[in-house]
Write a structure and sequence with these properties.
three-stranded antiparallel beta sheet, 2 domains, 249 residues, alpha+beta, Immunoglobulin-like
Length: 249
């Protein structure tokens, strides 16, 4: 039997029986504390008693049984403190991302689609040609050069939209803050917009997906939390929200 095992066993036997389980747990904590915050990624197999004793002995430095238990308790407290600090940092990061996405959505909402109509017109050559009439108002404080829009065409009795497409529109000379403009757009008649089966009473819904400024840089496009991030945020907020909030004050 290795000398380290004998040494650990000797210290263990010196303790009252009711403390030996706590001592055993302390050995495991001390042994695993030397490997990547308690996760031994280079040694995925479960440590046996001899390996735990061998590793823990190097960290004991002649400690008594009670001191081993105290040292393990200290390691646990330090580990939990690090985990809590990391959790709070993550919570704050997710909160900032969430708040930025909400703020950006509020900014985008200031640019409004006042009206949108779809119908089939005629080209100069008499061929059917789809037309989108739009009226928009720029309620933001930025001049806008380009819109990213989503158009959905629906009709009663047809469960699937006739059209559901995202498209860009580059605004000639841009649109200034407070300005309202009207346009008649001509989408590709060879695509879904030109479907001759779309009834004349079909309705068009246009939503704003994004904006670009005069330098063609996206505005207010911070992403929302992913489903995974949202679940993590809610879990951390429930556990650490009060602590994180108090540190912001």
């Amino acid at each position: 039997m290795p000398a380290s095992v004998v040494s650990v066993e000797k210290v263990r036997n010196s303790l009252p029986t009711y403390k030996r389980d706590e001592f055993d747990q302390g050995l495991i904590i001390i042994a695993t504390s030397t490997s990547f915050s308690g996760i031994d990624i280079l040694n995925p197999h479960r440590m046996n008693a001899a390996e735990i004793a061998e590793t823990a002995n190097a960290q004991m430095h002649g400690l008594t049984g009670d001191q081993v238990i105290q040292r393990a308790d200290q390691i646990l407290r330090e580990r939990r403190a690090r985990e809590r600090e990391q959790a709070i940092r993550t919570l704050k990061r997710l909160e900032e991302k969430r708040a930025k996405a909400i703020s950006d959505q509020q900014q985008l909402a200031r640019f409004t689609i006042d009206s949108a109509h779809y119908y089939m017109g005629s080209s100069p050559y008499g061929a059917p040609e789809p037309v989108i009439d739009l009226e928009v108002t720029n309620g933001t404080d930025q001049a806008i050069s380009e819109l990213l829009l989503r158009g959905v065409v629906t009709s009663l009795g047809h469960s699937v939209p006739w059209v559901d497409e995202v498209f860009y529109y580059v605004i000639p000379d841009g649109i200034e803050p407070g300005e309202t403009l009207e346009w008649s757009l001509a989408p590709n008649r060879f695509g879904p917009w030109g479907n001759a089966q779309i009834p004349s009473d079909a309705e068009l819904t246009v939503t704003l997906e994004g904006l670009k400024d005069l330098d063609e840089q996206p505005l207010w496009d911070s992403p929302e939390l992913t489903e995974h991030e949202l679940a993590r945020f809610e879990r951390l907020q429930k556990e650490y929200g009060g602590i994180a909030f108090s540190r912001l004050e």
